[in-house]
Amino acid sequence: MATAAASTTTSAAVLAFRLLRRLPRRLSVSRAPPAALASSSSSSSRRLPSLARHPLGHRTRMGHTAAAAAAAAEPALGLTKPNAVEPPQVTFSAKDIEFSEWKGDILAVAVTEKDLSKDADSKFENAVLKKLDGQLGGLLSEAAAEEDFTGKTGQSVVLRLAGQGFKRVGLIGLGQSAPSTAAASRGLGESVASVAKAAQASSAAIVLASPSGIQEEFKLTAAAAVASGTVLGLYEDSRYKSESKKVHLKQVDIIGLGSGAEVDQKLKYANDLSSGVIFGRELVNSPANVLTPAVLAEEASKIASTYSDVFTATVLDVEKCKELKMGSYLGVAAASANPPHFIHLCYKPTDGNVKRKLAIVGKGLTFDSGGYNIKTGPGCSIELMKFDMGGSAAVFGAAKALGQIKPPGVEVHFIVAACENMISGTGMRPGDIVTASNGKTIEVNNTDAEGRLTLADALVYACNQGVEKIIDLATLTGACVVALGPSIAGIFTPSDELAKEVAAASEVSGEKFWRLPLEESYWESMKSGVADMVNTGGRQGGSITAALFLKQFVDDKVQWMHIDMAGPVWSDKKRAATGFGVSTLVEWVLNNSSSS
Fold first, then answer.
1. Are residues 301 and 242 in the same domain?
2. Which candidate in 61, 281, 452, 551 is catalytic?
3. What pLDDT was estimated at residue 340?
4. Alpha-carbon distance 345 to 106, whole Å?
5. 41 within some domain
6. Domain harbouring 205, CATH code
């Protein structure tokens, strides 16, 4: 990822040179890739056989020889081996019952600030709270007053009860109004997960004190978002901790948002989607000494083997990438002891009926040192550069979810050029010229603007699949974080139609995007005196010039969008990945499926 800082300082260059002097021309020791990829570099689509336990804590395919199996068993640098931790398994049910009749561990009542209004007799005016308080002999009103609970967003109060069908009752603050967006509904689910975890509850029910505050046409989306928020709120990535917390919650009933087959299907969708988001988070959270390009390829291949009725996997090795003339991508990968893996998953519906072809391309830098323009100084975030494959995590998280949902009528190509950007005697240098697979030449004036070099060949490859639309996602520029902050991704596209499609998808997903201009006049700063272009145009408008660079590798006949997700890929507060992009991508594919 190119940072927003100025170009490399002299001291950084000296440091890189000293590092180089300590390295041999070719490194002779490398961490072995997983067995399946060490034993085969086939470039053809293939169905993957049986699964075995994988270092990331998931199940994956083993190689065909004893030597390859032994290589896969070799521990990662630092002897780190992630624990196998199952994600939360929660069953959701939508019910239209009287909340007072529900039996279980905790009844969570979502209330607005207005719901807590009281009459002249200090009784709740809200019908749900009034009935519940009467049932509890006024305990609810007393607890709300004693705990200074006013219904603000993020507030909660929980009472332990005796002699009731439910062991605890909790009030969850919604703020000034009932949820009207997917993000707000997901926040409610996360709050319920928090109180359920604290109570070690195995069952919970969620009811709104004012269900009429949610519009009828939004109830399906609200129910799904609450369910998704609950699962994601329960999830904690403890694979790299010596101890993990047990998740007790297994059953959640959602009361008052409808019932029947349609809402049940929507709740299943929420669970499928959540599994994809969790998978994306786990990929980003995994350190670079564990998640090498080979391991990322193996994790992607596992998706194809698990959902082999709709997926095929293709993994290209260095030699095949050379045949395809992917010089831009291979230039970035050249310095690393871990070889690159070009990954292509293809989704086709079970009936074979395809009316629309899409591609989703993700940046897959499993670690970015910056190369010779090494990341140094405050704000460079080199210790977080494991998240530079956040785009690929979104791509494969979406693939995992879609493998379960199985939308009809649409073919989707999931493409990632996975590699590391390192420093060695074999590496790409500032001033080198690389040639992309469409024949265009690039003068590398900054080795830390490497993501766009890998995406160049990935986009050319995607266009060659005969697709109509392409979305690429990348943690591409620090400039976009400066412009939009940590919660909003920037989108760039010459297609108003595609911009509207993603905006519609984001309304359902609750993820935040902002369209930025593709200012063609800025291309002047990307011109080279000796090649077709340089790979970075300086600090001003850095996210725009990066998008203009990518545009050079997309067929004019293909609708294309670039998403710069450098900000929202990571939560500084939680010090962990967010899974950003998965939900919007899945919704976008489903919308294209239904409109086919």
1. no
2. 452
3. 98
4. 42
5. no
6. 3.40.220.10
Catalytic-labelled residue, pool 375, 386, 400, 469: 375
Residues 6+ apart with CB under 8 A from 477: 1, 2, 4, 542, 543, 546, 564, 566
Both 329 and 464 in a single domain? yes
Q: Count up the domains in the chain and report the number.
A: 2
3-state secondary structure of 535: coil
Q: Could you read off the pLDDT of 439-485 as tens digits, one per residue?
A: 999 999 999 999 999 999 999 999 999 999 999 999 999 999 999 99
Please report the DSSP string for 249-274 in residue order: --EEEEESS--SHHHHHHHHHHHHHH
Domain identity same for 586 and 452 = yes
Q: For residue 66, is it within any domain? A: no
Residues 277 and 379 in one domain: yes
What pLDDT was estimated at residue 122?
Answer: 86
Angstrom distances, CA of residue 42 to CA of 320, 321, 466: 9, 12, 22
Element containing residue 553 per DSSP (H, E): none
Q: Does one domain contain both 180 and 302? A: no
Query: Helices in 200-260 by DSSP H: which ranges?
Result: 219-234
Active site residue 452: yes
46 tagged catalytic:
no
pLDDT in tens, 82-106: 998 889 999 999 998 998 889 999 9
Given a cut of 60, whether residue 596 has pLDDT beyond it is no
Q: Which two tokens stand for residue 137?
A: 């002999």
* Mean pLDDT along residues 138-151: 93
Structural domain including 164 reads 91-255
End-to-end CA distance of the chain: 36
If you average pLDDT over residues 387-403, what whole number do you get? 98
Element of type H or E holding 105 = strand 104-111
Where does the pLDDT of residue 529 fall: very low under 50, low under 70, confident under 90, or very high at 90 and above? very high
pTM exceeds 0.85 for this model:
yes
Shared domain for 514 and 376, answered yes or no, is yes
